[in-house]
Amino acid sequence: MHKLAVLLLSVGIALPAAAQQGTIKILVGFPAGASLDAMTRLVADKMQASLGQTVIVENRTGAGGQIAMTALKSSPADGTVLVITPLVTVVTAPHVFAKLPYDPVADFAPVAHAANFLFAFAMGPATPAKDLKGYIALVKQDPKFANYASAATGSLPHFFSLLFAEKAGISLNHIGYRGTAAALTDLLGGQIAAFMGTVSDVAPQHKAGKVHAVATSGAQRSKHLPDVPTFRELGYDIEGGGWYAAYAPAGTPATVVERLSKAIIAGLHAPDVVEKLDTYGMEPTGLGPAELARIQKRDYDLWGPVIKASGFKPGS
Predict the structure, then answer these.
(1) Which of 51, 100, 143, 148 gives a 20 to 30 Å CA spacing to 257?
(2) Does pLDDT of 168 surpass 50?
(3) Which residues of 50-80 are buried (b: 16+ CB within 10 A; e: fewer)?
(4) Are residues 111 and 172 in the same domain?
(5) Is 53 helix (H, G, I), strand (E, B) or coil?
(6) Mean pLDDT of 211-222
């Protein structure tokens, strides 16, 4: 028994030590060029300085973030591989897909809740509407204006737009993209009429006069789009937002999770990062593993009935 106890103790010490050596890789399930990628790279730089390890960011795109989460599931549970993801992969996807290549609870260890964000609905330059009422009238008049995009099928902006369509009494045709950059390119080019995305991705284009944001999803107006009314202001009883968070593979030792969590949270609270995230329309949170797990469960229960009521199925 004594030898066994010594062996277990030595293994328990060795695992956290291993996580303090070598390179840490942070996977992002969406393309470079969007706010999630930018935030992750800011955090990675801070982690590299505080941990004294090389921290790299790798875009492992596809399937609305599922490819990155699947890669995380099969990665070593030693703190060398993380994912920073929007809630879609662990909150909405389980309600949408009959079978996922991972279990959003059993296969991952919550590390840190990173930031909150709101949504904005925007018209492209080829869409002859300057407000939400005008857009609704266009859709009723000509179905071609019903073509709108989000960064991914099954994403929270996708489902939020379904709520809007129901409240407005119109039928919208969703076109899911592989990331925000491609969707905005087609919005600017006139291939799609409208876009539902994060405030952080819409605000710079709106301020530059390239697109026209017509509504935001918060309880109050976004300080990044102060000239844009909320859906509630416009008479539609809907409100919502999303978040980004970091996860490790299930089975990662608690001491390793805690070390990584503290490094991520410290990075998020660095004054220069807070300032930069503010320009992206994000509210950094920096919450630990237990709080992230609670928020994930809360939002899983919140959005499940909404998604079920929408009747959405993959491919629809």
Answers:
(1) 100
(2) yes
(3) bbebebebebbbbbbbbbbbbbbbebebbbb
(4) no
(5) coil
(6) 94
